[in-house]
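TICKET: design request
STATUS: open
ATTACHED STRUCTURE:
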């Protein structure tokens, strides 16, 4: 269980955040200089250098988005130009990519961040540039929403790259694409010119995720522990009925892959913040604000509580709470995480994502426990042995795991436990969490994935 520290404040983090962004600058440049576009997007490091891994192209936006966040944090125009130029040169295929459920990762991190900065006045107003970002976001949200499978009760979900039967818990944070497109007044046009509301699809997907991907201790099955998450939920595509939980990257369907848990925490909290900007009348036809927010709040609270209860004392989780050799560590939940143990790896990228889930849900609800838990996790992640200041290592946050069951992660020691490497989403989300806190410290606008023009 996380030993939540009540003494931490955002202001106390300024030295650690400055150190993080100092290290980050060199690493972004090092990746940019060594990256070969023909090899695909950088995914994770091997021996300290970023490499590609073909599965789906879901990390490109984190690469270029990191440069944009670096500019946001430091004001260094070099990183703005780098992120902006690479977005223009390389991100167009991701806008129209019908084969993935990752639009909120790729396109909000690039086009979305750039539009947000223009709306905030941090970069110069340019009507054609604004229209370029807006059009990319409008299309991206509609393409994401078109990956639609219907459920037996008339609802539906955005299906994963596995196919129409598959709902991934990760996608809850990719709903940002639909939200941004909706905020820009866009709709998905279907057969016979049918106008399909992106807001409605966002709500339906969130509700189906909350119902099937999250457990609440209500007797759903033998392993029903409140807050536990299933990475994948399987549906019968012939009739839309739910069939079973599954896991692609966790240990089993009945244990909790902690990065999936973190995606749920962050995604639900962020969408709750977004819904506060939507007028009541626009929610009335989709169940009404009270019902919609109650469903998402229940899911966010359950997952945040589970993360607090089933993480080590410093809040850096092991890759799966049911990992088969975790018991060899003894009472692991009462001690700080140990990335150098010989049995199971930690996943620092799950912590990087979870920080925002805890901070944002704490801000949304006004419950200090969640916010302080987020600060506690950040205090550990933004320091040794997780923050890398080694200029010879391209990763920013060490001891991340990508796909443990497939054995994709570098495991340098004879024990076969991955350690010492970084991943693109972990590095990006650490920067994003650090920027979230930095903007609080500097009394700048609250960091959201959407923004309104001044």
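STATUS: resolved
RESOLUTION: sequence designed for all positions
ATTACHED SEQUENCE:
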């Amino acid at each position: 269980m996380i030993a939540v520290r009540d003494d931490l404040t955002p202001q106390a983090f300024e030295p650690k955040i400055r150190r993080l962004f100092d290290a980050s600058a060199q690493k972004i440049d090092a990746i940019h200089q060594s990256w070969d576009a023909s090899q695909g997007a950088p995914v994770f490091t091997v021996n300290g250098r970023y490499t590609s891994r073909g599965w789906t192209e879901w990390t490109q936006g984190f690469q270029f988005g990191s440069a944009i966040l670096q500019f946001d944090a430091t004001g260094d125009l070099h990183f703005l130009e780098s992120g902006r130029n690479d977005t223009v040169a390389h991100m167009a295929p991701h806008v129209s990519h019908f084969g993935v459920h990752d639009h909120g990762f790729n396109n909000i991190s690039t086009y979305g961040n750039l539009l947000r900065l223009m709306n905030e006045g941090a970069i110069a107003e340019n009507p054609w540039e604004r229209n370029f970002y807006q059009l990319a976001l409008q299309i991206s949200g509609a393409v994401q929403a078109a990956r639609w499978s219907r459920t037996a009760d008339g609802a539906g979900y955005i299906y994963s790259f596995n196919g129409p039967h598959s709902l991934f818990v990760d996608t809850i944070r990719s709903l940002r694409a639909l939200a941004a497109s909706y905020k820009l007044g866009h709709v998905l046009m279907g057969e016979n010119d049918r106008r399909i509301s992106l807001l409605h699809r966002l709500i339906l997907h969130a509700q189906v995720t909350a119902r099937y991907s999250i457990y609440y201790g209500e007797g759903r099955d033998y392993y029903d522990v409140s807050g536990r998450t299933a990475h994948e939920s399987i549906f019968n595509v012939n009739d839309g009925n739910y069939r079973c939980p599954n896991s692609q990257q966790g240990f089993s369907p009945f244990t909790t892959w902690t990065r999936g848990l973190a995606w749920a925490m962050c995604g639900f909290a962020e969408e709750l913040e977004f819904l506060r900007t939507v007028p009541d009348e626009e929610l009335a036809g989709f169940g009404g604000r009270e019902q919609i927010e109650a469903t998402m709040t229940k899911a966010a609270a359950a997952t945040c509580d589970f993360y607090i209860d089933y993480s080590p004392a410093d809040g850096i989780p092991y890759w799966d709470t049911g990992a088969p050799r975790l018991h060899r560590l003894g009472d692991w939940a009462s001690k700080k995480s140990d990335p150098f143990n010989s049995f199971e790896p930690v996943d620092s990228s799950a912590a990087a994502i979870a920080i925002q889930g805890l901070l944002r849900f704490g801000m949304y609800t006004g419950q200090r426990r969640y916010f302080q838990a987020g600060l506690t996790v950040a205090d550990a992640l933004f320091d040794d042995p997780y923050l890398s200041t080694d200029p010879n290592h391209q990763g920013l946050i060490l001891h991340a795991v990508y796909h443990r069951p497939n054995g994709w992660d570098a495991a340098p020691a004879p024990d076969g436990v991955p350690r010492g490497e970084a991943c693109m989403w972990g590095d990006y989300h650490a920067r994003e969490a650090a920027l979230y806190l930095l903007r609080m410290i500097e009394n700048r606008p609250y960091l959201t994935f959407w923004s309104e023009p001044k």
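CLOSING REMARK: The mean pLDDT is 97. The CA atoms of residues 261 and 307 lie 7 Å apart.
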